[in-house]
Fold this protein.
Amino acid sequence: DRVSTEPCQGVSCLRRSVAQRMVHSLKAMDLSVSTIDAGLKLVFRAFDMHNDGHIAFLYFAHKASGNFYEVADCHHPTLANQTFCANASRYIGVVRHTSFADTKRRYFELSLNGDRFSTTPVYTAGEYPTTERAWFKQREGWTPLVDCFTTKKQVAVYVRQTATSIVAADRDSDEPCKPVLTRSSAPTVASAVAARNMDPLRTASTPAAVKSNLVPLIESFVGSNLGYTPLASIAFDNGNSYLVQNCLAKVYRDTAHCTSAASLDCTLLVHATNTKAFGDRKRHTFLAKKDGTIVDSTNLHGELAASTGDYDPRTTAWFTSTGWLDYTAWSVGGNGPVYVADPASNTFKVAVARLMTEPAALNTTAMTQSGPYRIVNELARKDPAGTNTATAFKNLVTAATGHDSGHLTEIYMATRTGAPNYYRIRDCSNTLFATTAPCTKTSARWVGFVRNEADYSDGKLRSFALNATGGPQGAALSVSADVYNPRTEVWFRQGSGWMPAHAQLQTYIRSGTHVAMASDRMTADAGGSLPPLPVPTPTPGPTPTPGPTPAPG
């Protein structure tokens, strides 16, 4: 008998590993650094960009000096009991460096920006033979399964080299492989797009006609997106194509075009190719809001920019494919395989990119039925932060009680622009909080936390007992000793979607231009981390025609 948890080590599985994405991102950076802080910062940038909870270590070493820089994720299950993670924040920076008089590795607590909190290590390990490790001697590619130096668990290591350095990441055997694609949200997005009438975009012959007919494409992309599909493209048999890009996706948020979009209160980019409308085969980039409104720039046609080269989707691999496809042209920023749908109209194809950070247990039906998903998306349709503390608490409690399944724990939101205002409600009837402060100071079900510069000028976090409609009751239950900044939190810096489960909780996030919102659910919700996919009922085939009765033997 074979246990279903036996790890997959096949080539197709390793090619989809986030370890490869991390290593390639780090390798593309300038690794000729000499200081500890500069080295850790590079590793942190590549690690943070792609981290989906399945990679514990990313690191690189200089061939000449043996200097070694590594970032470790203390939320990873294999590191939970490690001494250096015992009292640390999420990330630890590990170095072996010639500035010290020995070859020991030193462990430093890192901020959520990759900076060391202190030059004093939280832990010092023994001598580390950098040049003797199997990954250092590996030419390039994947090593066989080896024992991790720190955890002693078996990992496969992905290695790439530059002229001066070796870059590597450890992949755990429990990282999800191809079966995750059967639960991906990408086919749902593709089906939503394919169901709409896109023919006006095929026949549009002016820039104005293009812009006015983008609403169905944008609506279907935004309305079905769980946060793991940053791109969706449609292409027609006449070569016209339109690609929607989500600037709220973490991998694109800081790019030049998306920065321009954010400054104009836009969350999307649309890249349009239409020979009749624009007189060329270039991709013309426009700024768009999630309701389909195009915001014109000052350039010709109102576009933000145009590509330097021509583009014809009919020459791409995805245009002639159906189903899942490894498509490297969209792999920048950690995108994984692309799902291609072929609508019944046969005049256009739909391709949707999937982020490698999409959870292995993703189940579109279960996700959209979960309380946090419904609560956060209901809040997004309002002015979620409100004009003051009382309005914000009322909105949060109203949304929570309307979708309460018994597994909610907290709902919170913070402003992205202006002062870092923050509001959170906690369900004190939940067993996680019933015996903890400030729930022990009140008999109310809900406790609200607030940092509001207009209502309380000191920037500290306060908690209040709330009534059944979200109204604050009495004096503050607690006041933080220090100023609180929600913009340093891990959830605030993520894109929209579900974060990997940690401990007993899983968080759903909706990351907007002005406000970021999130809600936690217990992983016991619906009887497990997520319920299994329903088994589809097969469609009956035709009744076979009886064959001739065989002659007696």
